């Protein structure tokens, strides 16, 4: 990232009663509207990103969305803009696999080797140890992608289940197991088990649907230049993408509906909820995501990967979150089962972390998460913290939708 980031050190308080009254929500939304309109257009320009789309969940419901900047040169981002959300795809893959397991169509602990041929790996006896539970918690022992190896071939750096390493290739193997076991592509399985039951449209896995025509958020590189969509995402161009680890196309509103469904599904104890929320891979001390108190006021009491989600525990408070980032896109999604809050924040731009951190602080519902990302930005990018003055603007943005 080539610009000096200014990271927020204070958040705008946006409080609503629980359960919220209509008046509370209206007042809160007006404040959120005004604050985002005051800050986001300037951040888009300063950080050389195309734009940003935001959906906010409170009391388990999508209450507000805002859209700033451009999806392509001269074309504004709107509620209909379709973002390719990079690794956010892993959350939909995880929920699809959990739904299949709940229906007893697959197993989280069955070795995948009998169903998934992997010519780079299947001569190694460790390949027989891989299961969905290991793969979705990033303990496969594999690097992120084959091109991370000198010879371009996947190989184990250590035994599966023993250590953390983020691996998109591992997620793809998990999806291929589900496809082989059920005889259906992942995109069909997701539609059957999650998207259709939860009433979610404008979301597609590993494909360019007709409804995305003219609505795609073009990726923007670190220097602020628009990149070619099909060059950056060749699997979408040639139809080869599984979409399990990346290539999830969605609007902010569609992902907001997914968060609504997740919060509703977390209201009662269940085996699926337990799997989703049980940390399997602690991240304490991790070089990249490890929280350090010299940068962060309050680190999570416990944090790490569960089944497809990164989870933060602050006493009894839990936040499930996931990020996405590539050469032209930066994204964050999160939700809290206990506070019934959440957000989807999508940026078509490689320099999106400052905009995302500011958006989380302006939303104001998860100050612990905002503090965590301020700390990561200071740790990883040497960003100077700067307070965000309270917004006094009452102007309503024309780019926001409710």
UniProtKB/TrEMBL annotation:
Q: Which domain of life is it from?
A: Bacteria
Q: Name one Pfam family in it.
A: Beta-lactamase
Residue ranges of the Beta-lactamase-related domain?
Answer: 38-352
Name by which UniProt lists this protein: CubicO group peptidase (Beta-lactamase class C family)
